[in-house]
Amino acid sequence: MTIENHIKSILKERANLLKIQIEKDDISSGLLDCIEFILEGERYAMESVFVSEVIPLMEITPLPCTPGFILGIVNVRGKIISIIDMKKFFGLPEKGITNLNRVVIIKYNGVELGILADEIVGNTKIQLNKLQSKIKTITDIHNGFILGVTKERLIVLDIKEFLLNKKLIIDDEV
Description:
The protein is an alpha+beta fold. It has a single domain, classed as CATH 2.40.50.180. The chain is 17% helix and 37% strand. The protein has helices spanning 3-18, 26-29, 86-90, 159-163; strands at 31-39, 42-47, 51-56, 70-76, 79-85, 102-108, 111-117, 119-127, 146-149, 155-157. The strands form 2 sheets. It has a 5-stranded mixed beta sheet. Strand 4 (70-76) and strand 5 form a beta hairpin. The longest helix is centred in the N-terminal third of the chain and has 16 residues, at 3-18. It is globular, with a radius of gyration of 20 Å. The protein starts with a helix and ends in an 11-residue tail after the last helix. Mean pLDDT is 82; it is low at 20-27.
């Protein structure tokens, strides 16, 4: 055995000793790892797999000629991110921006944007089979973006559907 092969086998053995054993894939077990946040007094959640990071609200540069739910853009370490106000998008009442507001950067299928949250509650795990999927909302815009609601009234958003929605694509010329 060469020294190089010996080193590789030691490193492989060490990696096997250190690796974390994952019992089951969360999806196959029906368990969603989510980030919980507040929008206008209501509790919402989204799967953590779509969340890149949560950042404090920084200075937002407004974008002219965009829908009202687009607050503007921010520079996050050299990357320009659009910020969406979910309250305006869902037709919820607004209460203004405070120092508790956070931006949740979400990403899926090459689309990346920030969602303005009133407050971040934390991480939570949700059983898929315990979600009530048929719900009535005041505004129908909610229905296409909701996976379901827990018995604790936590609304679980379908981030894939949200990010792939044609309403988010702005292709207007001025």
